[in-house]
Structure formats: structure tokens, C-alpha cells
Amino acid sequence: MISQIQTLLPWYNPGVELHQIRDRKKLAAYFRQDLPLHAYSLGDLDDFYWPKTTFYGEILGKEISRVTLLYHGEGLPVLLALGPEGFFGDDYYHSLSPLLPDPFYAHFSPGLEKYFLEDYQIDDHGEHYKMDLVEPGDFGKTSSRSPFRLNANHLPELQKLFHQSYPENAFDPRMLSTGRYYGYQFGGELVSVAGVHVYSSRYRVAALGNITTHPDHRNRGFARLVTAHLCRDLVGEVDTIGLNVKADNAPAIHLYQSLGFKIAAKYGEFSLKKRFLPLNFLEKG
User: Fold this and answer.
1) Which of 181, 193, 192, 191 has its CA nearest to residue 234?
2) Residue 93 to residue 107: CA distance in whole angstroms
3) Quick one: fold of 136-259?
4) 165-210: per-residue pLDDT in tens?
5) 15-129+268-284 against 136-259: fold identical
6) pTM, to two decimals
7) Which of 118, 169, 209, 276 has the most CB atoms within 10 Å of its CB?
């Protein structure tokens, strides 16, 4: 029947059959095939994040394939669609698109955004790198100064620092309960912080995030100090430590490389909102 429709309507694309997958064992096996690429998704299998996740994928025999994650956290829902070049094609897009919220934020492997151009208004937030800690350094020699662990009592001054130095960041106050946020004070003020977007002792993975220093205190080694302290804390607890960084942020990339991180993959970040009318309709008009 589908082949007959395609003969009559060459533009018709039936898509693929996508399933909402809730088998964490199978999802973990899938994400572990490329840990640097999927560190965030693997960590989101943890009970701490699991209720906020929706995983869509194909089922081929007894295995799952081409999985995407939709995460409902603070702010816009975030879609993670990551894989090798050509991994997600037009067929996958046609099945996934009706399942997506409007609007949403996305992390796409290079080129995937082209499938969304006709139906969505897209704001490009630039190329990013996924980095993976592959050669841990001697974090203990970074400085004699001591960062301290942040907790819920530090939330007001942490939010103040983010407002001053990193207003566009995605910070979920719940993350302080992981115990994996470290800060540094100067003159009695919190001036630098390093934390995690994802942390799971069960899946032995962490993704660093919300790393920033007050503009008045940059280039003094504070960011390296707190990040190194955090990494030293994590190395004995997890097997994979990753992070995302914008490709044009040379100072941050240099810092991470000095701590033993390597660039593992490229991806893009985008904001998407459904068009009132498809682009091809507007062009014909």
C-alpha cells in the first residue's frame, strides 16, 4: 500500500515506526556505544532525571536504534538527536516531528537541522564541541587555594553570580543536591563556580556545566581551580566525564584541554518554533 502511495505521490514519506522506549537497560547499552557523544543521555537514565525524560527510537528485532531524547527540565524542552553523519534521515524526521513540543531547544549532530527548515523557524546558537576527559592530570597541583562544596544554602549567592556572569545558562537548583558544585570566594564573595549538568553514580557518568567566573575576577585561575577540584572529586566516582563547550570559546577550551579533556565530537545548538505555514507554502505564495 505504501509503495502505491509513493508511486502516486512521489513526495510522500511514511517515516519510520518510532516507539517511546522505557527500558533503561537497553537504553544504557545503546548510549554506551559512544560514551563521549551520549554522556548526557546515559546520565539522564538515573532516577534523579528519569521522570523528566522521553526517549524515542526504532526497534529492530530485539535491539533499539536511532534514539533521541526529549528532556523536560527548566525552560524549554531540549531535544538531543546525536549520531554519525547521515544517521538521522528524512524518514526519521517525518516520524519524530509530530511528537515534538513547540517551541523547543535542540542539540543536533551536524546537518540534522536541514530536515527541520521547512516546518520550523530556527535560531542557530552556533557550533559546539563535546569534550571527554581522557588524560586526567594531577588535579591536586592546580593550587593551594581551597574551593568549597556548595549546597542549597548557597543558592541565593550562586544565582547572583550566574546573573552577573552567565545569565543565559541553564541551571536547575535541584542540581545542588548532587553535592557536585564547588565555589571559590574572594573578598567574602562567591566569584567562581563549577558544577554538573548530569551526575549519576549508578551509571558512572558526569557532565560538567555551569562553570563561570565573575567578570571582575577572570584570568586569575579561579575557573581552573574550581573545575580541577570538581574533576578530582569525580574521577574516583565515575568512568566518564564529559562537557559541552561553544566552539568559539577558545579560553574555555584551552582550560579544559589543560585538565586532560579532548574534543570528541561536534554538534550544533538551536532554538526551534513551528512555522504557522510551511516554508514551501510561503514560497509558492
Assistant:
1) 181
2) 14
3) Aminopeptidase (3.40.630)
4) 988 888 899 999 999 999 999 999 999 999 999 999 999 999 999 9
5) yes
6) 0.88
7) 209
